């Protein structure tokens, strides 16, 4: 998962949509018709994800498969008809991804054909496939619940004038939506992976503010990353060794 600069939000901005009427603001589940907007946002906010590396055709099929998997959830934050951010999460991420890859093996394979002509991409795909479909251990696998992706439009992040003028705090709203679901499924912890702090200090700072604690520096899919874990039982913000409480 890759995070950029984020802000906090009041839970009062979460809106449960009426299934018979359009949503004009707040968080709602994404549907297939939202994929083009999701991909456009991802290209702008998180251009170095797996889906982006493997091409637009794969990215579309990949997110379509995620939407069809009952144990994977994609929510979006909308301002009117504009998608400002989205989150992907699961209460049992390894089994959910394994199910998605198996059910859509032919679709994924056909979408990847051209991408796999590049040796580096082929090696990347093989590492992911070995992790998802195989039985090899991977960092943090004892924690099933995971926030896989969070992306927010650049102008809706941080301390931008636009964000302040609208009073929108998108990332926290998305995360709280995910936490509510995960707690309801019995999850007691959730994990998230971030790039090393030297590469992306804003993402690491954000997850710490959200209550995640650094569990360790790990290698996942051949990529060095930070593993953060948050307790979903104790609402008090946990602190890591040597970190002062706010």
Question: How would the blueprint of this fold be written?
Answer:
Blueprint: E1 25-29, H1 35-45, H2 50-53, H3 56-68, E2 73-79, E3 82-90, H4 93-103, H5 105-112, H6 119-133, E4 146-152, H7 161-166, H8 170-184, E5 189-194, H9 201-209, E6 213-220, E7 223-231
Calculate Rg over CA atoms.
18 Å
* Structure annotation, total helices: 9
* Strand portion: 15-25%
CATH topology: Aminopeptidase
**Proper CATH architecture:** 3-Layer(aba) Sandwich
Under the CATH scheme, which class?
Answer: Alpha Beta
Helix content: 25-40%
Q: Please give the number of β-strands.
A: 7
User: Helix- and strand-based class?
Assistant: alpha+beta
- Give average pLDDT, whole number: 76
**What summary fits the major beta sheet?**
4 strands, antiparallel
- Low-pLDDT windows of residues: 1-24, 236-246
The fourth-level CATH homologous superfamily is Gcn5-related N-acetyltransferase (GNAT)
Number of domains: 1
**Spatial ordering of strands, largest sheet:** 1-2-3-4
Query: Per the principal axes of the C-alpha atoms, what is the gross shape?
Result: globular
Secondary-structure element order, as H and E? EHHHEEHHHEHHEHEE
The CA-CA distance between the termini, in Å, is: 26 Å
């Amino acid at each position: 998962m890759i995070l950029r600069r984020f802000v906090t939000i009041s839970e009062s901005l979460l809106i449960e949509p009426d299934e018979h009427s359009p949503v004009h603001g707040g968080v709602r589940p994404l549907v297939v018709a939202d994929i083009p907007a999701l991909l456009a946002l991802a290209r702008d906010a998180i251009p170095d994800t797996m889906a982006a590396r493997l091409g637009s055709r794969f990215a579309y099929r990949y997110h379509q498969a995620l939407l069809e998997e009952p144990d994977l959830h994609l929510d979006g934050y909308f301002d009117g008809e504009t998608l400002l951010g989205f989150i992907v999460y699961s209460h049992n991420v390894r089994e959910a991804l394994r199910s998605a890859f198996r059910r859509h093996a032919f679709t994924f394979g056909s979408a990847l054909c051209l991408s796999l002509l590049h040796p580096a991409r082929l090696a990347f795909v093989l590492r992911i496939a070995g992790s998802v479909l195989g039985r090899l251990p991977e960092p943090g696998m004892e924690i099933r619940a995971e926030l896989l992706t969070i992306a927010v439009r650049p102008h809706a992040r941080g301390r931008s004038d636009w964000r302040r003028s609208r009073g929108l705090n998108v990332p926290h709203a998305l995360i709280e939506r995910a936490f509510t679901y995960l707690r309801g499924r019995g999850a007691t912890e959730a994990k998230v992976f971030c790039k090393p702090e030297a590469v992306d200090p804003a993402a690491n700072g954000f997850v710490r503010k959200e209550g995640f604690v650094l569990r360790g520096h790990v290698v996942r899919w051949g990529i060095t990353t930070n593993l953060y874990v948050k307790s979903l039982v104790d609402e008090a913000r946990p602190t890591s060794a040597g970190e002062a409480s706010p």
